[in-house]
Amino acid sequence: MEKCVLITGGTKGIGKAVALCLGNLGYHLILTYASDTEAAVLFCCELRNSGITVDIVQADVSKNESIDLISQFLSNAGIHLDVLIFNAGLTCRKSFEEQTFEEWNRVFYANVHFPVFLLQRIVSQINEGGCIVFTGSLMGIEPHSVSLAYGVTKSAVHALVKNLVKFLSPYHIRVNGVAPGFVDTEWQKAKPVEIRHNIENKLSLGRFCEPQEIAQVYKMLIENSYFNGDIIVVDGGYSYK
Ligand SMILES: NC(=O)c1ccc[n+]([C@@H]2O[C@H](COP(=O)([O-])OP(=O)(O)OC[C@H]3O[C@@H](n4cnc5c(N)ncnc54)[C@H](OP(=O)(O)O)[C@@H]3O)[C@@H](O)[C@H]2O)c1
User: Fold this and answer.
1) Given the CA of residue 138, which atom of ligand 1 is nearest to it?
2) Distance 129 CA to ligand 1 centre (A)
């Protein structure tokens, strides 16, 4: 029977690369996105033209109602998941002095609260032997001067992965995380050229990670059934230069 994967933020960047990788392995894809329907539909057509089966669901992870939306979608379609990838994440680049409680809360809701309460709702719709992969970040390990909320929430994501292991073991579900350094997605491409050069200079490999390279790490965590509670850091040698 066809395996199913749900990827939040699966229509661009890291999520898109993971979707392509798993789609080519024969997975049925359920991809969520926030607002860019045009890009989502285009990607969906590309996938279908290559014989990959896919559903797209518009579900903003900063909104409570998206939990109902996703859970209802799975129930109505009678879908049980084999893999769940919590990938969509938010940041807020306002200065420490200017950040409001609401902005701080939005980042926490999207990066931490949303996955916890979506998982609580749909855990019974994940098959035994299934697995979950969270997208963390190197910024959850290294102190981060750009967004306090982002760094703190990504640390929480890493802690969540480790803490969830025992809660998910009765369901026979594994849970792991990937902590990417700098992956060349729209998120990074939007940065000014001089900032991008500064980043490249800090990396031993001297370049950003390609989304396809990071997708291979998700594949490994899904396929190797001995990974559980692990965070794989993929930073191109950031820590060693
Ligand atoms: N790129 C990096 O260097 C890097 C490094 C470390 C960690 N990460 C993490 O990797 C994850 C993906 O980042 P990326 O670089 O691949 O981003 P990206 O290229 O900007 O792709 C973002 C994807 O997530 C969706 N998305 C954005 N905001 C959302 C929301 N509020 N609700 C639901 N979906 C939303 C987008 O949908 P729309 O197109 O509709 O907006 C799109 O499908 C994030 O958790 C990020 O923190 C990235």
Assistant:
1) 6
2) 27
Q: Are 17 and 211 in contact (CB under 8 A)?
A: yes
Query: Is the CB of residue 149 less than 8 Å from the CB of residue 99?
Result: yes
Write the CATH number for 32: 3.40.50.720
Number of domain units in the chain: 1
Instruction: Convert the pLDDT of each residue in 12-48 to its tens digit.
Output: 999 999 999 999 999 999 999 999 999 999 999 999 9
Residue nearest to atom 37 of ligand 1 (CA): 33
Show the domain range for 84: 4-240
Alpha-carbon span 207 to 139, nearest angstrom? 17
| pTM for the predicted model, two decimal places | 0.97
- Cα–Cα distance measured from residue 58 to residue 16, given in angstroms and rounded to the nearest whole number: 15
Q: Report how far residue 82's alpha carbon sits from residue 130's, in angstroms, rounded to the nearest whole number.
A: 5
